[in-house]
Amino acid sequence: MDKSEKIRHLTALEINLERTKAVVDIPDKYRILLRVVKNRSGVTKRTEEMLVELHHPFVNWNYLLAQLKGLSIGDFNAFNSHEDGLSALKSFADIYLIVISSAADEEVKDNAVRYCLEYLQTILSCSGNLLKRNTALFSPVFRYLADLSRMHVRLLKRSSSHLKAIARRMVKDHVEMNPDEVSRLLFSAFNSTYQYWLTQPDPSEWFSGDGETSKEDRDAYRELIS
Questions:
Q1: Which of 145, 167, 211, 221, by CA, is between 20 and 30 Å from 58?
Q2: Considering the entire predicted model, what is its pTM?
Q3: pLDDT for the residue numbered 212
Q4: Other beta carbons less than 10 A from residue 88's beta carbon
Q5: Contacts for 87 with CB less than 8 Å, ≥ 6 apart
Q6: Which of 177, 62, 71 lies closest to 109 in space, CA to CA?
Q7: What is the dihedral of CA 68, 70, 72, 77, to 10 degrees?
Q8: What is the pLDDT of residues 10-20, one digit of tens each?
């Protein structure tokens, strides 16, 4: 039984009681994140809180994602500048993929995909002279997302703009990449986007003035047809 199934069979009170008595052990492979920022007390505290949440039997995925984004993007330089920075950055990428594959809520998955791609964009724009070192983590992420989207067809339905920006930046900065992996992921994203929109009402009615739909969906449709 996975975590999401277990949560559905417990009341909110029972979950809170279970959370307070649970003892969480952080695996050694993630302790690299703590070692890299050990001299930064504030970042260390937030990193430990994130890792405890990740390995808690009752994960609060929204809280975990907020912490993950804040550390991996907001505190990027603190991790990137360390001599073991690549290992730390890979750990962040792994955690994003864990959330994407494990969270049951579709909105959480969508947010995790978006934040993950924003993280990759941060690596491209903020790595400085360590960019060549850091691009080693792109291929595993690209392959994982492409493979996972075969099982979850709509996984990448709102990712095409981020992926196009990543691909353009990689070309502009002459980043070494496997074109087949990039093409496969872009294909998966476009396929996911089209499959999603085929299940929706005709979007052309949105622009008649009578339709009621969100700005986010209208922007997504404009992106699709542009």
A1: 145
A2: 0.81
A3: 60
A4: 22
A5: 32, 36
A6: 62
A7: -160
A8: 565 555 556 55
Q: How many residues does the chain have?
A: 226
Structure tokens at 173: 């900065």
Alpha-carbon 45 to chain mean position: 22
Q: Judge whether 5 and 13 are in contact, CB under 8 Å.
A: no
